[in-house]
């Protein structure tokens, strides 16, 4: 929505005499909402931490969604510890399997440093994932 300086002054209750020259530049106000994407699903961290959702989110899915949330949607790398995996219901061995699968699928990059905690970086947030 566009408003001139005169209409903005009138909107806040100031009387603007006709003789006063008011700048004629147009002021653009921000839209009320950002445009939404067509396909979108929100998964809350609480859903990944509660064991009642394990049937809905398989282990690899839980690991990936947890990494998306922890990395602030790919803005920072994550040190994915065993205690973090335990929070989402993954055993140490299953965490490693999930990380290897996600890396092979091209969704994440894993910096393996021997037996130390792996550092995970999200490669992309894909539109479609082939899980087969």
Low-confidence stretches: none
Order of helices and strands: EHEHHEHHEE
Largest sheet: 3 strands, antiparallel
Q: Estimate the helix proportion, in percent.
A: 25-40%
What structural class do the secondary elements suggest? alpha+beta
Number of strands: 5
Strand content: 5-15%
Radius of gyration: 25 Å
Explained architecture:
The protein has two domains: 1-33, no CATH class; 45-122, Orthogonal Bundle (Arc Repressor Mutant, subunit A). The longest helix is centred in the last third of the chain and has 13 residues, at 92-104. The strands form two sheets. Strands 3-5-4 form a three-stranded antiparallel β-sheet. Helix 3 packs across helix 5 (92-104). The chain has helices at 5-11, 45-49, 59-70, 82-87, 92-104, and strands at 2-4, 26-28, 78-79, 108-111, 119-122. The protein has 132 residues and is an alpha+beta fold.
Summarize the SSE layout with pairings:
Layout: E1 2-4, H1 5-11, E2 26-28, H2 45-49, H3 59-70, E3 78-79, H4 82-87, H5 92-104, E4 108-111, E5 119-122
Helix pairs in contact: 3-5
Structure characteristics:
alpha+beta; 3-stranded antiparallel beta sheet; Arc Repressor Mutant, subunit A; 2 domains; 132 residues
